[in-house]
UniProtKB/TrEMBL annotation:
UniProt cross-references to InterPro entries, sorted A to Z: Plipid/glycerol_acylTrfase
Any single biological process term in GO: phosphatidic acid biosynthetic process
Superkingdom, natural source: Bacteria
GO cellular component: plasma membrane
Keyword DNA repair assigned: no
Lineage of the species this protein comes from: Bacteria, Bacillati, Actinomycetota, Actinomycetes, Micrococcales
Protein name (Swiss-Prot/TrEMBL): 1-acyl-sn-glycerol-3-phosphate acyltransferase
Species of the source: Microbacterium allomyrinae
Keyword Acyltransferase: yes
Phospholipid/glycerol acyltransferase domain: residues covered: 73-192
MF terms (GO), sorted A to Z: 1-acylglycerol-3-phosphate O-acyltransferase activity
Keywords assigned by UniProt, alphabetized: Acyltransferase, Transferase
A Pfam family this chain is assigned to: Acyltransferase
């Protein structure tokens, strides 16, 4: 079968530096922590928020038929705005879960309750953000969701693009797909940064967004999850599909915070796996 054009074009435009394998203890199978039940709040929230958001924002949705109706699936999307994690569940034909900062669930008083109920209602799972063990714990949570046959939404870029360009993908999504065997549905979001730009307090209702679901990607031909080369090539295939859907300009770099000291600058220059 000839290789899709987008898979040939993306690596040409974005250099795919092959990253070394992560330590063996970072990819070993282990006990998976149980996933917190979403309960009635999620069921009611999905029943109210989804039709209300569709009515107000009238999103243009393409490719819903590409989404598997049952079984584990990973939505891998570009990331432009805070509301991306609302746009995907609203547009998808099945419930979708994503990880959110645990601080959204830990507030006190009435405002804390509102935040907790809202994020639960849209399918968020609280996690501690960070590198090292926190990142591995997040992967464990996502794997647990997939093992229960659920759908999860992830952003290979790692964080929102502040300039609208598509940044290089980190390999955590590919690792999860290769480890679990879950298909990856690429998602291209267009216009969410117009509806709610970075720093905006409330979303605008004068703009429409587009959500494009691509054909599912089966990535096992790249190799096992323990191979750094397999994770890198699988990530490039995912990002190529996202690029074909979103049409964004390519940044040719990782979306990383500016280095504030010499140690950070050295870490960004040296080869390492950006998971």
């Amino acid at each position: 079968m000839p290789e899709p054009e987008c898979n040939r074009e993306y690596p040409r435009l974005v250099t795919s530096d092959l990253e070394p394998d992560v330590p063996a203890d970072a990819v070993e199978e282990g006990e998976t922590a149980p996933v917190r039940s979403m309960g009635a709040t999620y069921a009611v929230g999905r029943g109210i928020i989804t039709p209300l958001a569709r009515l107000i924002y009238r999103p243009r949705v393409d490719g819903r038929a590409n989404v598997p109706k049952t079984g584990p699936v990973i939505f891998a999307s570009n990331h432009l705005s805070f509301i991306d994690s609302i746009a995907i569940p609203v547009a998808a034909p099945r419930p979708v879960h994503f990880l959110a900062k645990s601080s959204y669930f830990e507030g006190s008083g009435f405002s804390g309750w509102i935040s907790r109920e809202f994020f639960t209602a849209i399918g968020a799972i609280p996690v501690q953000r960070g590198a090292g063990q926190a990142a591995l714990d997040a992967l464990d949570q996502q794997r647990a969701l997939l093992e229960e046959g659920r759908a999860v939404a992830l952003y290979p870029e790692g964080t929102r693009s502040l300039d609208g360009r598509l940044y290089k993908g980190r390999t955590g999504v590919a690792f999860l797909a290769l480890q679990t065997g879950a298909p990856v549905v690429p998602v291209g979001l267009i216009g969410t940064d117009d509806v709610m730009p970075v720093g905006a307090k409330l979303p605008s209702i004068t703009h429409r967004i587009s959500v494009k679901f691509g054909e599912p990607l089966e990535l096992s031909h790249h190799g096992p999850a323990t191979s750094g080369k397999a994770r890198r090539f699988a990530t490039d295939e995912i990002m190529a599909a996202i690029h074909a859907l979103s049409g964004q300009e390519l940044a040719n770099a990782y979306n990383e915070a500016p280095a504030h000291n010499p140690i950070d600058r050295i870490r960004q220059v040296l080869p390492h796996e950006r998971r």
